[in-house]
Every structure is written in C-alpha cells, then in structure tokens.
Amino acid sequence: MGTCEVCGNEYWMTFEVRTVSGDVHTFDSFECAAHRLAPICEHCGCKIIGHGVEVSGRFFCCAHCARSVDREHGAGLRDTVGTHPG
Q1: How far apart are CA 46 and CA 58, in angstroms?
Q2: Does this model's pTM top 0.70?
Q3: What string of pLDDT tens digits covers the 86 residues of the chain?
C-alpha cells in the first residue's frame, strides 16, 4: 500500500510518476499528480493541465497569456489550429 505525497491518503492503487530528472512521485489520483507536477502559467497563475504554450523557455496556459507577457515572441501564437467551423 502506498501513500500519496500530496494528500497523505494510504491507498492500495497508488501509482508512481517518474520525471525526466529521475525523481519518483507517488499519488493516489490524477488530481493530486496534476496539483504537484503541472507547470503554472506565468501570466494568470493557473495550472497548465493541457498542452499550453512555451515561449522563450517560459510556460503559459494559452496563447493569450503568452502574448500578454511577450508580445514579440507570442505574436504568432494561436490557441486553435485550422479553420473555424462554419
């Protein structure tokens, strides 16, 4: 039985996440894993659960936040790909 490193719950179905740096984390839910490991948007402060965007080594939840902080490098970013459904 493992113990979640975020909430402390002892649970028989905990799982481990191994990071690129070699760290090993134990969680009882994806919610706790996201809380601990998800990057934080440098503009609005929300957890980046989806793809997000990276501009000049900085992480943002969306193109709007990236453009708000770095207009030069974020100018070409869009949150959607393709044409808008008509």
Answers
A1: 14
A2: yes
A3: 899 999 999 999 999 999 999 999 999 999 999 999 999 999 999 999 988 888 888 899 988 899 888 777 767 777 666 565 65
